[in-house]
Amino acid sequence: MYFVEKIKGINYVRQFDYSLFISVVVLSIAGLIVLNSATLTMSGRESIMKTQILSLIIGVIASLVISFLDYNSFKSVALLMYLASVGLLMLVLFIGYGYKEVGSKSWLIIHVKGYNISFQPAELSKITMVILISCFLERIKEKQDVGKNIIKLIVFFLLVAGLILKQPDYGMAIVFFVALFIMIYISGVKYKHLFIAAGALLFTTPFIWFFALNEDRKKRILEFISPGYDPGGASYQLERAQIAIGSGRIYGSGLYKGIQTQTPPHVGGVPVRESDMIFTVIGEELGFIGSVLIIALILFIIIRCFYIAINSRDIFGALLVTGLTGMMAYQFLQNIGMCVRLLPVTGLPLPFVSAGGSAMITNYISIGIILSVSIRRKRTMFSSQQ
C-alpha cells in the first residue's frame, strides 16, 4: 500500500478535477472521429482505428488509477524507472525498427500470442525524465548537495537525450529540452544561468547542422526558411497541407468529404494525414469554426494544467505538472504550427488526436499524474476543514 496515499481526509469524488478530465476525453473522442475520416481511404485503416480505440480505453483507465496514487510516491521509484527507460532506449538501437519515410528507428515490437505489439520507448521516457528532473530540482531548491545534484541532473538528462538523438528522433529530443528549460525556469534559477545555457545551446548549432542532422532534416529546415526549396519532399507536404486547410474556409467541406485529405498522397493528397498532418483534416473538413473549437479546447486543457501547477501543495508537484504540461503544450504548438507553415516539420503528433497508441497512453498517464497533484492541492487548501 506504499503507493496509495491514505484516503483519510480526502474525498476523491468531490476533489477530482472533472473539468480537466472531461476536456481531455472530449478532445480524444473528437480525435477518433477525425482519425476515422483521415484513414477512410488508407490501407490498414481497421488496424489503426482498433489500436487507437484500445489505447484510449487503456489510457483512460490508467489516468484514473494514477490519479488515486500520491504523486510523491514516484520519488521512490524514479531511479528504477529511469534505468528501465535507458535500457529500452538502448534496446531500440539494436533491435528497434522504423520507417524510411519517418527517418528514425524508434519502435520496439513485442510478440504476444501471435500478435505484434509495437511501442515507442521514447514516449514513456518523457514521463520518467520529468519525474527524475523534478526530484533533482526539488533537492537543488532545498539546498541539498546542490553541486552533486546539478551534475547528476546534467548527466542523466544528456544520456537519455543522446540515446533519442541516436535513433535519430530530433523532434522528440527537442520536446525533452523544452521541458527541461521550462522546469528549470519555474524552479527559480537565475535568468543569467538560463541565458548562459541558451547561449551554450546556440553555440552548438553549427556542430548540430554539420555533424548531427541528416539531409532530410536539413531540407525540412531550409524549406521552412525558403519555401519551395524541396519541391518533391517537405515542400510538397506543406503545400498540400496549406491547400487543404485553406479550402476548408469557414464551415469546412464536412467529414469524409475533404478533397485533399481523402485523396491518396501519391495522387495529390496530404501525406501522413493520420499522424503528423492530422490538423489538415480538421482544417479542411471542419473548417475555421471546427479548428477554432479544437484549439480552444486545447488552450483550456493547457491553462487548466498550469493553474494546477501554480496551486500545487509543494515544489515537486509544481515541477511535475509544469514539465508534463510543457511537453504537451509544445507538441500542440509544433504540430499545428507546422501544418499551417509557421514552424518547420518535425514529425511530432498532435496529442490525443493523432494516430499512435504509445503517445495516447503516455499522454493519459501524464494527465493521471496531473490529476493526482490537483486532488492533493485541495487537501492542503482545506486541511482545517478535514
The ordered H/E elements are: HHHHEEEHHHHHHHHHHH
Rg result: 21 Å
Largest sheet: 3 strands, antiparallel
The unreliable regions are 1-7, 379-386
**Sheet with most strands: strand arrangement:** 1-2-3
Shape, per Cα inertia axes: globular
- Helix-strand makeup class: mainly alpha
- The domain count comes to 1
The portion of residues assigned to helices is: 55-70%
Mean pLDDT: 86
- Straight-line N-to-C gap: 22 Å
Total number of β-strand segments? Answer: 3
The fraction of residues in strands falls at under 5%
Describe the protein.
- With 386 residues, the chain is mainly α.
- It has one domain.
- Helices cover 67% and strands 4% of the residues.
- It has a three-stranded antiparallel sheet.
- A hairpin with a 2-residue loop joins strand 2 and strand 3.
- The longest helix has 33 residues.
- It is globular, with a radius of gyration of 21 Å.
Topology:
Layout: H1 12-15, H2 18-38, H3 45-67, H4 78-95, E1 97-99, E2 104-112, E3 115-119, H5 121-141, H6 146-166, H7 170-186, H8 191-203, H9 205-212, H10 215-225, H11 234-248, H12 259-262, H13 278-310, H14 315-339, H15 357-381
Antiparallel strand pairs: 1-2, 2-3
Task: List the defining traits of the structure above.
disordered N terminus, mainly alpha, 386 residues, single chain, 67% helix
Quick synopsis:
This protein is mainly α and 386 residues long.
